[in-house]
Amino acid sequence: MSKFPTSRLAWNDYQVILAVARHGSLSKAAEALGSSHPTLVRRIRDIEASLGATLFERSRQGYQPTAAATQLLALAEEFDLRLRDLERDAELGTAGRLTLATTEVLMPRIVPPLLAHCRRELPDITINLQVGENLANVRQREADIALRSGGEPDGDLIGRVVCNIEVAIYAPAGWPNVSEENLHQQAWVTVDESLGHLASSKWLEAEGLMRRAVVRCSSTLAVCRLLEEGLGVGILPCHLGDANPRLRRVSSLLTDFRSQLWLLTPRQLRGVPKVSATVECLTAGLREMKDLFEGRSA
User: pTM score > 0.70 for this model?
Assistant: First the structure.
């Protein structure tokens, strides 16, 4: 399939292509666009010259899109749909549906009360919740808001830091003799190689504690569940460990492994009322949990 230099086209160029394809008539397309027949003829010629391709062929049935136009129509339809979404959002204000993407580790203690708070404050907004680790869904507009830990977002996303996320070492509540002084003698539950990029994982490796691991997990939430069952000690974010009556903290805060909690949205959604209202509501709810995230509730 051939590629076209679509960056040369403005949105109103796509509108012309879409109108002609939908109506099959230059006169009807011009009327729909509030333009004239001669102006539309000139616009199509200019677009075709810019792309170096013929977009429409005239037949008894009217103007039919060529293969080149068909490729562009998919983009034009998507742009038109997005524009209608934005117009509808503007009309609805702080009502409607949006998608929130978050991570598994925030589900047990954070997200349920947070969504309950939003439901009370914004009853006209319906939230579709996506749980996973991939941010691609936010960049590709499959989600409107992301709640996640990490660092500064790239240029496609804008956001705010809500608070820090502190971590510490936890042991089962029924292990009274575990202390910071004898951690090297304990059985450990750790993350596996899939999370080897984490600073805490690199520290465990450097300290030789990976060799004491009885279970390695691809999920921080799984580490938490296994600690509850008494399989060993492990590193957890404070919002998981401190809120769990089956665990107790056995170290000071590991501030070298501190991360930040971010609320992110695609840049193109800046100023959309329902998104802005939801971000503000989420921020307020999360700041009420700041002590839990930052390890001050133990």
Answer: no
